[in-house]
Amino acid sequence: QLAIDTFVRFFTGHEKIAFFLPGPLYPGLLHVFDYGPENTLPLSGIYLLLSMGLVAAWLWWLWRNGLSRLWLYIFAVLPTPYWFMLNVSTDLLFAGVVAAFWLLWFDQRVPDLRRMAGVAVVVVIAALLRPNALSLLLFLCIDALIRGVALKEPSPTRRRGLLFAALVTVVLTIFAVFYLPYFYWVFAGNSA
Question: 39 has which bridge partners?
């Protein structure tokens, strides 16, 4: 509710934003788990499990793409899961979203429609987490246009790519308006 009230006050000209508001997913997660000084273990445990799953997904992907056992072992013993367990923030969630984006969008074995639908869900989740997800949306729009237009794909594939780029542009515009107070805050020099 604080985020919605702040956005309404910003857009009606009654408030200048002097602080950063994350997307609504992270505060919602804190609320669901009742995260606070007296109740840290449930969400930290979930973060540990998510982090371990993220490491397992990357290990699987790296193994599937021919990385040697030595490098897989080195990657596996990095302290990443423990760091994310201790650092409950949007970082792990966004790392998971970026991993899902990478694994879906660049896997040519996944059929186009399934890949596009999966990536669309992933980027919307990313945009609900953090404003810097707009860079993922912008990349996705440009990449879909390049694949559809510049690479001279067959007509049905090109049409599907252009429709997907249009959908991503609409989603990008919606979230750009949603994060307008954040951009105002950054560009006004209040980030220091």
Answer: 36
Phi, psi of 36 (to 5 degrees): -170, 180
CA distance 84 to 117: 28
- SS3 state of residue 49: helix
Q: State pLDDT tens for residues 139-155.
A: 988 888 887 777 766 77
Q: Comparing 154 with 46, which gets the higher pLDDT?
A: 46
Rounded to two decimals, what is the model's pTM? 0.76
Give 42's contacts (C-beta < 8 A, 6+ positions apart).
33, 34, 35
The distance between the two most distant Cα atoms of the chain, rounded to a whole number of Å, is 59
**For residue range 56-84, what is the model confidence (pLDDT) as tens digits?**
888 998 999 899 999 999 988 888 767 77
The torsion angles phi and psi of 39, rounded to 5 degrees, stand at -140, 75
Handedness of CA 41, 50, 132, 27 (dihedral sign): negative
DSSP string across 87-132: S-SHHHHHHHHHHHHHHHHT-TTS-HHHHHHHHHHHHHHHHHH-GG
| Size of the chain in residues | 192
